[in-house]
Write a structure and sequence with these properties.
231 residues; Porin; 8-stranded antiparallel beta barrel; 2 domains
Length: 231
């Protein structure tokens, strides 16, 4: 008579343990699924072409901060430090800052690929110094003058890109992107009143006008980041 209650108790415990184990297993599966479609909490990344390919070279750092299940806030800034196109002679330079702020919406495919679309606002402010040959006093004589052109640019662009996560824990990643938009550019120059450029063009990339100007132009953005993700 005592055997039957014990058997019933063992059977009940076995059923409970089996049910609990299944719930725990399904919970783990759900956790993995959620993990796969969750963005990193934050990232830190550096724009590689900005240091090498861009004629106005800069050290540009950025970060993504997760603000929703599929949304992140992307912001970055960095200084201009050199130009392989504009700066040819000693004393020529480019100095300033560039900044970006944007929002990205992701389409998640596992934890390896993360394509996205979004918008990006840009802000650039820099001073470009180049030697130019100028005429003075009604072109009675010419001289080589170090001319400073100050530029302020603001813009907005739509963009799309793809983040590719690497490594066993998907910590490292590449972020390749492109987009189109517009930018408003204000330029001013520190030429004396009697000075005019004696030639109209200083190299392919050189500024070729002495006029202060305000332009609204199309803007194309392209770039590749390399970074580290914090899950």
């Amino acid at each position: 008579m005592r055997v039957k209650p014990i058997l019933l108790l063992l059977i009940a415990c076995s059923i409970f343990e089996s049910s609990f184990g299944q719930d725990e297993e399904s919970l783990d599966e759900d956790t993995v699924k959620i993990e796969r479609i969750t963005l990193p909490r934050a990232t830190i990344k550096i724009n590689i072409p900005a240091m090498t390919i861009d004629p106005k070279q800069s050290v540009f750092f950025a970060t993504d901060t997760r603000i929703g299940r599929f949304l992140s806030l992307d912001m970055g800034a960095g200084p201009y430090f050199n130009s392989w196109a504009y700066n040819e002679y000693k004393g020529e330079s480019i100095r300033g800052i560039r900044a970006r702020l944007g929002v990205k919406y992701y389409y998640i495919f596992g934890r390896r690929l993360a394509p996205y679309v979004g918008v990006e606002g840009m802000f650039n402010r820099y001073a470009l110094k180049n030697y130019r040959e100028v005429c003075r006093s009604g072109c009675q004589y010419t001289e080589d003058m170090l001319v400073t052109q100050e530029t302020l640019a603001r813009g907005l662009s739509a963009r799309t890109g793809l983040e590719i996560f690497l490594g066993k824990e998907k910590r490292f990643f590449f972020d390749a992107y492109g987009g189109v938009g517009f930018k408003v550019t204000d330029r001013s120059m520190n030429l004396p009143e009697d000075a005019v450029f004696s030639n109209s063009l200083s190299g392919f990339f050189g500024f070729d006008t002495q006029d202060n100007a305000n332009d609204t132009l199309p803007n194309i953005i392209l770039g590749i980041y390399f970074g580290y993700a914090f899950w």
